[in-house]
Amino acid sequence: MKLKFALYGFGVLGKKVFNFLSSYKKESIVIIENDSRVQDGVDIQSLDSACLSEDFVIVICVWNEKIDLAELYHDIRLHFPNNHIIFASELTNHFSFDHFWFISRNNLNVNSSKINQAKNLFRDARSRSLFDFLLNLRTTNDFTIQTVIDGNQYFPNDILEFSAQVHEEVFCDLGAFIGDTLNEIKCRGGVKYYCGFEPDKQNYSLLKASTENIDFDFEIFNLGSYSRSGEIGFHSNLKESSCIDLYCTDYTIQVVKLDEFNFKYMPTVFKMDIEGAEFDTLIGMSQIIKKYKPKLMICLYHKKDDFWRIPLYIRNLRGDYKMSLRQHAMNGLETVLYCY
Question: What is the pTM of this model?
Answer without folding.
Answer: 0.95
